[in-house]
Every structure is written in C-alpha cells, then in structure tokens.
Write a structure and sequence with these properties.
single chain; alpha+beta; 60s Ribosomal Protein L30, Chain: A; four-stranded mixed sheet; two-stranded antiparallel ribbon
Length: 129
C-alpha cells in the first residue's frame, strides 16, 4: 500500500491549501501526466476561464484513469496560468477537484504553447503497490 504523508512547515498555508512536501512510501507505480491544457475533445478551449480550468482537470483525470490512477493518487501538481486575474477562479476549481493536499506549484507565466490557452496542469501520481 502506498502511503502519502503530507508535511507542513507553515509556508504553504499562507498561499493555499497544499502540502509543503509529501513523503511517499510503500512502493507503487509512478504516473507522470504531461502538461495538460483545458482543450475540449474537438481541440478548442472553452471561452469561459472557469470552464477551461474544469476541462483541464477533466483531461488530467482521464489521463490518470487510463493509467489506472485517480485524482487522489496525485502526489505533486505543477500548475500554470497566463494571468493573475484568473488565480481566484482557478483555485476555486482546483478545490472542487482536489480534496487532499499534494505538494504543488502554481506559476503565472507569459503564455503557453498556443496563445489562446490560459491554464495547464501537470501531475505526478503514485499507484499503490
């Protein structure tokens, strides 16, 4: 059984709900989900940012499912937004989806691979041994 133990130094608590670090024990299969934008099945992003963020997480969940993993198996998240104006909306969506506290990083960057993309998420998950 894989055990994910969050550790808190107090720094992350000033920013959002995530662990400052996680320890993963018990072995298991590691799953690395590539940077995933909020593209719909037809390859277009939703016009509304909140819908794009939800689609992004839905795409991550689909990728995890194909590997036999779940959102609760995520131990690390890397998240990129292209505007500070979307941080609150993104964090609200993230809280809808992620109910545990993996280690995490959130960055505001100038842009993603396509200029009309506003959010991308990459995760690492570990399946129980």
């Amino acid at each position: 059984m894989t055990i994910i133990t969050p550790m808190f130094t107090g720094v992350a608590a000033h920013i959002a709900e995530y662990a400052d670090a996680v320890a993963v024990s018990g072995g298991g299969t590691q799953v690395f989900v590539s940077g995933t934008p909020g593209l719909r099945e037809d390859g277009t992003p939703p016009e509304d940012f909140t819908d794009e963020a939800r689609q992004c997480w839905a795409n991550v969940e689909i990728a995890l499912d194909k590997a036999g993993a779940k959102l609760t198996d995520i131990v690390y998240m890397r998240q990129w937004l292209t505007s500070r104006d979307n941080v609150s909306a993104y964090l609200a969506v993230s809280k809808e989806v992620i109910h545990h506290q993996p280690a995490a990083m959130l960055s505001i960057i100038d842009g993603l691979v396509w200029p009309n993309l506003r959010v991308e998420v990459e995760v690492t998950a570990i399946l129980p041994a």
